[in-house]
Amino acid sequence: MNEKLFYFSDNTKLCGILNKLNNTNELVIICHARTSSKDSRPTTLLAEALSKNNINNFRFDFIACGESSGDISNYTVTNMVNNLNDTLYKMKKDYDFENFILIGCSMGARIISLVNHNQFNIKKIILWYGALNYPQKIFNLPSKKEKIAKKQGYYCVEKGIMLSYNYFIDERKYCAYKNLYTWEVPKLFIHGTNDHYVNYKSSIKVSKKCKNAKLILIKNGDHGFHNEDSMNLALKETINFIIN
User: Fold this and answer.
1) What whole-number distance in Å separates Cα of residue 223 and Cα of residue 199?
2) Could you tell me the residue range of the domain that residue 149 belongs to?
3) What is the DSSP string of 144-169?
4) Do residues 74 and 166 share a domain?
5) Are residues 69 and 100 in the same domain?
6) Buried b (16+ CB within 10 A) or exposed e, 197-214
7) What totals of helices (H) and strands (E) does the chain contain, helices first?
8) Cα–Cα distance between 146 and 166 in angstroms, integer?
9) How far is CA 172 from the centre of its chain?
10) Given a cut of 70, is residue 184 above it in pLDDT?
11) How confident is the model at residue 142, as a pLDDT?
12) What is the C-alpha R_g of the chain?
């Protein structure tokens, strides 16, 4: 791949990798999952598949992830949405891209659902095993994880990966799937039926209420499509959706 790594953003030092493969003004931007990075298996395989099909693509690390700056207290949904808006602005201003396709994995799918789509010309969005917080708790009450984070200042997702109390407070401000209901841009939902982190039924419910949406369920696919056949099918459907 013709990869160019650089740092950007006025507010936070973000790190991204650009593969510019043709002279069109269209760019696919890949957003990684929660506490993951641009170098995770799904994001790198997406970049490779896009590059093999001569599609311009860009993947980057959200704040406090991978090679981007910040600590866990900065890692919030608000800041991640701002990161994506900054990325779109950077690609438009400095690289002359005018049309964008967004791909989000898990939490990344939530973030692309919250982007300022009135400011940028977003042509399509693709949501891999999207963490779209559906259904929202009726009374918007704190979760068990948030209560733990409040008590000790953080919640440990897994060894070495933590979420701050600020993250949970901020997360409850948003209802990403509602944005999707009224956004008419073409949408592709891809979800595995063996996902133990985000129930695939959430993608079914959200996609049914969306305009201009397509749903692909991958039988026995898990969260992250670790099975090679599941990943290959997800990549194939993604490329077809972008090209056609």
Assistant:
1) 9
2) 138-174
3) HHHHHHHHHSEEEEETTEEEEHHHHH
4) no
5) yes
6) ebebebbeebbeebeebe
7) 8, 10
8) 9
9) 18
10) yes
11) 78
12) 17
44 plus 95 within the same structural domain: yes
Task: Please classify residue 60 by burial: count the beta carbons closer than 10 Å to its beta carbon, then call 0-12 exposed, 13-18 middle and 19+ buried.
Answer: buried
Residue 172 vs residue 224, higher pLDDT: 224
- The rounded distance, in Å, linking the Cα atoms of 43 and 48 is 9
Nearest to 126 by CA among 243, 8, 9: 243
Kind plus residue range of the DSSP H or E element containing 77: helix 77-95
CB atoms within 10 A of CB 107: 24
Q: How confident is the model at residue 1 (pLDDT cuts 50, 70, 90)?
A: low
Q: Which of 57, 5, 13, 56 is nearest to 31 (CA)?
A: 57
Instruction: State residue 235 phi and psi, 5-degree precision.
Output: -65, -45
Backbone φ and ψ for 93, nearest 5 degrees, come out as -75, -45
Instruction: In whole angstroms, give the CA distance from residue 99 to residue 132.
Output: 24
Based on the fold, state whether residues 145 and 190 are members of the same structural domain. Answer: no
Q: Are residues 69 and 165 in the same domain?
A: no
Residues 51 and 166 in one domain: no
CA–CA gap between residue 4 and residue 183 (Å, rounded) = 32
Q: What percent of the chain has pLDDT over 90?
A: 77
Residues 160 and 88 in one domain: no
For the chain, the domain total comes to: 2
